[in-house]
Write a structure and sequence with these properties.
Layout (H helix, E strand, L loop, with lengths): L7 H12 L27 H8 L7 E5 L5 E5 L2 E2 L9 E2 L4 H12 L12 H18 L2 H7 L2 H11 L7 E2 L8 H22 L13 E2 L12 H12 L3 H14 L2 H10 L10 H8 L1 H10 L6 H19 L6
Parallel strand pairs: 5-6
Antiparallel strand pairs: 1-2, 2-3, 2-4
Helix pairs in contact: 1-6, 4-5, 4-9, 4-13, 6-9, 9-10, 9-13
Length: about 325
Amino acid sequence: MLVGRLSKCSRNILKSSFASSHLRSFATHSKSTTIQPDSYESNKKTETNKLEKSLAKFWEKVTIGNSNDGSYTIELDGKSIKTPLGFEMKIPKNKKTLAFLLANEWKSLPSLQIKPFLVPLTSLTARCIDLNEAQITNDDEIKTKIGDLSTIKNLLLRYLDTDTMLVFSPREDCDGELRKEQEKCYRPLIEDMENFFTKFSDDGEPVKLTYLDCDTDGLIGNQQTKHTHIAVLNYLNSLSTWDLVALEKAVLVGKSFLAGVTILRNADYNDKFNLTIDELARLVSLETVLQTLRWGEVEDTHDVDKVDIRRSLASVAIIAHNSKPE
């Protein structure tokens, strides 16, 4: 069946903008969504770049420090970690949980060779900070390396057209079980998301998400209306850089724009919407789940991908999480 995909050119542009702040050793995506920086090389003497080049532990003690502005810093032997672009890795004071988990991530790294999947939070946090600083400084050279917010938003928006959870398979697939599960799981989610995006509609008119029914539509492309695009873009414009990076990662992992919005809504204390990471991981890989239930898993493939999706989505949830207001 179709999954949430863009043209090869568009995917490469979005992947490039996402990857440019990541270290090669910090690539944390599953095999199907691996993103590697092809052109960006940073020669700045930062802890993250040193880790990339040495792939070995070079510190003794990891501590959490405090900046004058109240933000947290992660310190190696008393020196604050910097991002690949050389910016100090400051964690906002409303993300205390993230600060402690980042410190634990560096404390838990082995003294032998470092594996890419061991530092997912550092990778995402570095992108958040580098992308935010790029917009503040308005440096065109940095933006070329890390990406521009408007470009990222427009490319992410296109994933909504072919969202995994907006594609319904033929009714005969998996003896009818797949379509039955999609109707059961996707329909309520779509309706809830329509109500949510309506809040961002310029004219107050209800937002309706179009979907692809492979029984009646065949393999033609799906496309949202202009009204829907405007409302969803208004939503994207309301997000902080941290939330936008979290959304970006979730979209690339799950091939689903709605998956990213789900995680951000879960992190909003004022939003009653709730879907666990395990439930979301199942929804974005529903066809694979049902196929493996029927035919069994391929060792070191399906089982690894399943865990990798959950790990990636959980990392996104941590990035999006804010301490509860007192």
